[in-house]
Amino acid sequence: MSVKTSAPRTAPATPGGAKKALLASSGVVTVLAVWWLAVAVFGLDANHTLASPLEVAQRLADLLVTPLAGHTLIGHAAVSIARWGVGFGVAAVLGVVVGYVFAWYPLARAVLLPVFEVLRYIAPFAWIPLAILWLQPGLAAQAFVVFVAVFPACVLNAEASVRRIDPALVRAAAVLGGGTHRTLTSVAIPTGAPLTVAGLQIGVGNGWMALMGAELIVGHSGLGFVILSGQQSSDPALIIAGMVAIGVLGAAMGQVLQVATRPFTRWTKGLGAKQ
User: Fold this and answer.
1) How far is residue 242's CA from residue 228's CA, in Å, rounded to a whole number?
2) What is the DSSP letter of 226?
3) 68 SS3 class
């Protein structure tokens, strides 16, 4: 009696560059078409409920040359990026270091982890009143809110990246004469780099969204302030223009981080490929 064996399944082929661009373009066109039809059919622009794609595009073009509260769109974007950059940079460095300490030094983990576990569940927006009291409204206060949003993801992923390494690698390093610190820097950290980078990527989105919320509450400039200005003037085109700028910039920052961290994870390329 013969037994039929099925061929092993392979992962679907990744679309090539041209096909990916075509698929992405079709998605954008579909969204714009549905959006335009909704506005045209239901007359949503007449009662200031929703602006059409053309109105939003015109408002974006206007904002590039006409200042709003002293800044053009590029100026507001630059202010937001500066606030995000300060908060994200400090949180990324400190968070990764703290995560490694938690994973490698049990005493530090036992002392500090309970405090961290309580603080990380406090929403970033809840820190805004204290940030204003401590730092006054401005770059420092809003960068602090970004820090609070980014820090936990960096800590947790950096800790997991070290704690999940194969114990055999640690034992091999010890056999070869590697001390505690040498094993951490030469074995544990490089091996766990992909998971650490994933924490940074999560932090990009968390920090950017927290900043927009802070700018909506206390900002007098920045992309969050652009949206607030649109709400105060009952201008949906301005609100959506700000949202588009926020989304495009956030996606761009995620891509920049992905490219910047690629050298640290290059060794993982092809590990999941079928033999």
Assistant:
1) 9
2) H
3) strand
Q: Are 193 and 265 in contact (CB under 8 A)?
A: yes
Pair of tokens at residue 80: 């937001």
pLDDT single digits (tens) 180-237: 666 666 666 777 788 899 999 999 999 999 999 999 988 789 999 999 999 999 899 9
Q: In whole angstroms, what is the distance from residue 69 CA to residue 18 CA?
A: 41
Helix (H) or strand (E) holding 20: helix 17-42
First to last CA, the chain: 30
Write the DSSP assignment of 63-95 as a string of letters. Answer: HHHS-BTTB-HHHHHHHHHHHHHHHHHHHHHHH
* The amino acid at 102: F
Rg (CA), the chain: 24
Q: Report how far residue 208's alpha carbon sits from residue 248's, in angstroms, rounded to the nearest whole number.
A: 12
The token pair at 210 is 């927290």
Q: Tell me if 68 sits within 8 A of 226, measured CB to CB.
A: yes
Residue labelled with tokens 């064996």: 5
What are the residues facing 213 on neighbouring strands?
none
Give dist(CA 89, CA 154) in Å, integer. 11
- Cβ neighbours around 100 below 10 Å, total: 21
